[in-house]
Amino acid sequence: MTNRLKEMGESAAWKLMVSAAIKGAKHVGYTLERRPGRGLSNTYNVTKDGKTQSASVRTTRDRWIAFPPLDDGARWKTLDDVELVLVSAVNDRLNPQNVDVYLFPAGEVRKRFNASYAARTKQGHVVRNDYGMWVTLDKGDDQVPSQVGHSLALDYPAIAHFTLDELEAGVEPETKHLADEAAPEPEETVSEDVPPLMTVVDVLNFARTKIAALTGVSADAIKLDLKMGV
């Protein structure tokens, strides 16, 4: 089994995923223009039937999407500035063959992220400001704090599906130009919310939060012993 996206390289794979998102939006009648004054942010004005809205494009190769909380979860970076979230997601993390494109109301995405943030912090998980927090698009388990907010892809079915073959065969020049202009948000470059680990204490604290996420047990109740051989 080979992962075709991994083989084509990080930059090429990311641009292919962005192209899929743009192509999907056009497929259902939107025109797109990159928003001015946004630096390298992957945010667009999208217009359909004379109505223009702002949209954040997200790509995911594991079917989780991220936005960073601000002010201890009172706000969400990028997400609070848009009205729509346009997502391109592979059909399979290990062996992707297709890309699904979704269009979510930003208000609904915020609701899912707020619920996930509340569930995590209630269980003692550390959720850092301005660092990406992930929510799964697919069906999850409400009893697991890190999975709260799941099922966006079930509640809002894909607006388009593309095979990797047709995406690799090429896209129209306008779509390619828009994708070439874009750059990933920092939280799109990793698939797990791993903070910088600079000390042994950082590593132990991170391990406790990950064990808490997997088990649903409060991080405060998890005790780890470290033994180092000489």
Low-confidence stretches: 189-196
**H/E element string?**
HHEEEEEEEEHEHEHHH
Quaternary state reads single chain
Q: Quick one: overall form?
A: globular
Number of helices: 7
Instruction: Please indicate the count of domains.
Output: 2
Q: How would you sum up this structure, described in words?
A:
The protein has 7 helices and 10 strands. By secondary structure, the chain is an alpha+beta fold. The longest helix has 18 residues, at 10-27. The strands form 3 sheets. It has a 6-stranded mixed β-sheet. It has a two-stranded antiparallel sheet with strand order 4-9. Strands 5-6 form a two-stranded antiparallel ribbon. It has helices spanning 4-8, 10-27, 106-122, 152-155, 164-168, 173-181, 200-215, and strands at residues 31-34, 43-48, 51-60, 64-67, 69-70, 75-76, 84-90, 98-105, 133-136, 160-163. It has 2 domains: 4-193, no CATH class; 194-230, no CATH class.
Furnish the topology, listing elements before pairings:
Layout: H1 4-8, H2 10-27, E1 31-34, E2 43-48, E3 51-60, E4 64-67, E5 69-70, E6 75-76, E7 84-90, E8 98-105, H3 106-122, E9 133-136, H4 152-155, E10 160-163, H5 164-168, H6 173-181, H7 200-215
Parallel strand pairs: 3-7
Antiparallel strand pairs: 1-2, 2-3, 4-9, 5-6, 7-8, 8-10
Helix pairs in contact: 2-6
What is the structure about, briefly put?
The chain has about 230 residues and is of the alpha+beta class. It has seven helices and ten strands.
List keywords for this structure.
230 residues, single chain, alpha+beta, 7 helices, two-stranded antiparallel ribbon, globular, 22% strand, 2 domains, six-stranded mixed β-sheet
